[in-house]
Amino acid sequence: RCRSNERIIYSVSTDINHLEYDGNGDWIGIQEYVTVTSSGTWTRSLIDTAGDGTSWVLAALPSSGSSGQICTPTIQSGYAGTDRQCTLRFTVGTATADVTITQYGFV
After folding, report:
1. pLDDT value of residue 29
2. Alpha-carbon gap, residue 20 to 91, rounded angstroms
3. Alpha helices, H only, the chain
4. pLDDT at residue number 30
5. Which pLDDT value is given to residue 64?
6. Distance between CA atoms of residues 20 and 28, nearest Å
7. Distance between CA atoms of 17 and 33, rounded to whole angstroms?
8. How confident is the model at residue 8 (pLDDT cuts 50, 70, 90)?
9. CA-CA-CA-CA torsion for 62, 49, 28, 13, nearest 10 degrees?
10. How far is it, in rounded angstroms, from Cα 68 to Cα 35?
């Protein structure tokens, strides 16, 4: 039971802070997924932080999970524009952890 003078502490973190993909939607870099550590059930959202929209991230599954689970994005293929970014955000209560997703276009 929670008393009115007790605070609930929420926490969420990720094992990486950046995911990179080429114009074909193939991941480049260390890994293609994010492992989420949290104090409870987390939810995932996509945020347009660079004005590039988020529709090019076709999926980031699962959309919620528990501590230790991974989330794997699927990125649009055949992209020939300039580099684009958005944020993959994980939330537990009032705590958040952000991962930047970058897709490099064909030049």
Report:
1. 86
2. 21
3. none
4. 84
5. 97
6. 5
7. 11
8. confident
9. -50
10. 6
Structure tokens at 2: 């929670």
CA dihedral 52, 53, 54, 57 (to 10 degrees): -40
> Given this model, what pLDDT does residue 19 score?
97
Token couple for 41: 């059930």
Residue 36 makes CB contacts below 8 A (sequence gap 6+) with 12, 13, 14, 42, 65, 67, 68, 69, 70, 71, 90, 97
* Token couple for 31: 């890994």
Query: What is the dihedral sign for C-alpha 44, 74, 104, 54?
Result: negative
Contact 21, 15 (CB under 8 A): no
Confidence bin at 78 (pLDDT 50/70/90): very high
User: Burial of 92 by CB count in 10 Å (0-12 exposed, 13-18 middle, 19+ buried)?
Assistant: buried
